[in-house]
Amino acid sequence: MNRIGILCASDTELAPFFEYIKVFETTEKAMLKFYMGTIGQADVVAVYSGVCKVNASIAAQVLIDYFHVGCIINAGTAGGMDPSVELFDTVISERMIYHDVAEDILTDFHPWLASNDFHADPGLLSFAKDYSLNAAFPVLFGTMVTGEQFIEDDKRAEINAKFAPLSVDMETTAIAHVCYVNKIPFLSVRTITDTAAHKGIENFDQNCEAASVRSAAIVVGILGRMNEG
Question: How many domains does the chain fold into?
Fold first, then answer.
């Protein structure tokens, strides 16, 4: 199996992986610390990038250029957008799109992409769906949106009407964008910390650690399916 990049936004989101990963080497690049090791039979490089699209993009490009990963899995937390999404549900990406980028920016200007949304790698998605059939936790598949804003009530209705997302975060689509232009398979796994019914930074802060533990467990479960495949 090719080396797998695991990219989280925060140290809290990365921390649960150290229950699974056997670290053999730590390398620092671009003010980031990368942990090289194994999870089961999988050769992995794990990193937390810091919050926001630019930080996540930097980490993704380093994983590709320096560590030569064959795919990247984004793990961590997100806000729930669809009313059906509940606290601690885990959303896995099928489609990813920026909610704060004009529709024509990606298609009318360099590098002239075919569309302004991105899609998870079919192979990784297949492993995730196979895993979900017997998952211990609720797993949902659908659209994730990304933007430089913590969504509470402001813009929630507008974003839901335009994109019909299950979740929102500040990094996923940027990582998908980097992987797309580099032709690297990508998948995002995000566990919900806050919703319209349980909104606000206080819910995120309260639920982030537990949600991160669940997200990491699901990623490790998907890696197990990949090893079997």
Answer: 1
Q: pTM (2 decimals)? A: 0.96
Domain that holds residue 175: 4-228
Q: What is the pLDDT of residue 199?
A: 86
- Comparing CA positions, the residue from 43, 38, 41 lying closest to residue 70 is 43
HEC sequence for the chain: CCCEEEEECCHHHHHHHHHCCEEEEEEEECCEEEEEEEECCEEEEEEECCCCHHHHHHHHHHHHHCCCCCEEEEEEEEEECCCCCCCCCEEEEEEEEECCCCCCHHHHCCCCCCCCEEECCHHHHHHHHHHHCCCCCCEEEEEEEECCCCCCCCCHHHHHHHHCCCEEECCHHHHHHHHHHHCCCEEEEEEEEECCCCCCHHHHHHHHHHHHHHHHHHHHHHHHHHHHC
CA atoms within 13 A on the CB side of 157: 2
Give mean pLDDT, residues 82-107.
Answer: 96
Domain of 223, CATH number, reads 3.40.50.1580
Dist. CA 177–CA 186, nearest whole Å: 9
Q: How confident is the model at residue 23 (pLDDT cuts 50, 70, 90)?
A: confident
Chain center to CA of 28: 22
